[in-house]
Amino acid sequence: MTVAAPTLNDLNIQKPRSLWADAFRRLSRNRAAMVGLVVVVIYVLIAIFAPLIAPKNPVEQTSGNSLRPPVWVTDNPKRMPNPENLFGTDTNGRDILSRLIYGVRVSLIVGLVPQLIIVTIGITIGLISGFAERWLDNLLMRITEIVASFPDLLFIITLTVAFRDTAFGKAFNGLLLIFTALAAVGWTGMARLVRGQVLSLKEKEFIEAARALGIPTPTILFRHILPNTMAPIIVAISFSIPGLILAEAILTFLGVGMKPSVDSTNALPTSLGQMMSEGFSNLSSGPWMLLFPVVMISTLVLSFTFLGDGLRDALDPRDSA
C-alpha cells in the first residue's frame, strides 16, 4: 500500500505570495491610496469616453452667446442659468461641463505621453551608465548634470516660445512641442534613479553568476537588472505625473502652452490650464469659470499624489506590515 506524499494544504502551509501580490495587498490597505486610484480610474474613463459623456460640443456656442452661471446660482435675476448647461457657460457661451471633460483628457495625455518619453530615455541612460565602463559612466552623468542644471520652467518656456510659430510648434494645438519640452528636462531624475539601482545590483551574486555563465550584457540588463528596479521606477512615475500636469497648466496659464481650438471635430480642443487662464481673466463676472478647472486639476493631482504615497509604502521591501 503506497501513501501519497503530503501536500501543502495537508501540512497547512500557505504558498508564498509574489512581490507584486504582496505589494497589492499592502496597497489595498491604504485607504487614501485606494481613493486616489479610484479617482484616477474615473478620470481615465472620462477622458476615454469624453465624446459620449459630454452633453455638448466643447466649442459650440449656445444660443444667446452669453455668460451663464451654474444651475444652482439663481441670485441674479438679470442672468439666470440655463438648465441645459449644468455648470454654466463661459463668456463665449460654451458649455463649461463639456469643456472640463475634454480638458481632463488633455491633462491626462500631458501627464502620460511625456512620461513615456522620460521613462524611455531615463531607463536607457541609467542602465548604460550604471553598467558600463567608468569613462562612459562619467560622460553620461556629466551630460545629465548639464541638462539638470538648467532651470526647468525657464527652459521649457524658452523652448515653447522659440518654436511655437513653427509647424512643429503648431502640431496637435501645440501639445507636441509641450511633450518635447517637458521630456527634454524631465529625464535626468529617472536616469539618476535607475543608475543608482544598477550600481547596487550589479555586484549581487546572481549578476556575477550570469556574467560567469557568459550571458550577454543586454540580457543581463533587461532580464535580470531592470525587473529588479521596477518598484522605485513605478513610484517615481506616479509622483512625476502630477508635476507634468501642473507644468502644462502653468504654461497654458502663462499663454505659452496649448493653443485653444475652435474646430468642432478636434479631439483636444482645450485644457484645464486654458480654462484656468480664461477664468482668471473673467474672475469678477464669472468666478465659476476659474473654480471648476481648479477643482478638477487639484483633485487629479492629489489623487496621483495619494496613489504615489501608497505605492511607495507598498513597494518598500523594508515594510513588514
Number of helices: 13
The appropriate CATH architecture is: Orthogonal Bundle
Q: Please tell me what the overall shape is.
A: elongated
Taken in chain order, the helices and strands follow as: HHHHHHHHHHHHH
Description:
- The protein has 13 helices and no strands.
- It has helices spanning 19-28, 31-48, 50-53, 96-131, 134-149, 152-163, 167-170, 175-201, 205-212, 217-225, 230-254, 272-281, 288-314.
- It is mainly alpha-helical and 321 residues long.
- The protein has a single domain, classed as MetI-like fold (Orthogonal Bundle), CATH 1.10.3720.
- The model has no long low-confidence stretch (mean pLDDT 84).
Secondary structure layout plus pairing:
Blueprint: H1 19-28, H2 31-48, H3 50-53, H4 96-131, H5 134-149, H6 152-163, H7 167-170, H8 175-201, H9 205-212, H10 217-225, H11 230-254, H12 272-281, H13 288-314
Helix pairs in contact: 1-13, 2-4, 2-13, 4-5, 4-8, 4-11, 4-12, 4-13, 5-8, 6-8, 8-11, 9-10, 11-12, 11-13, 12-13
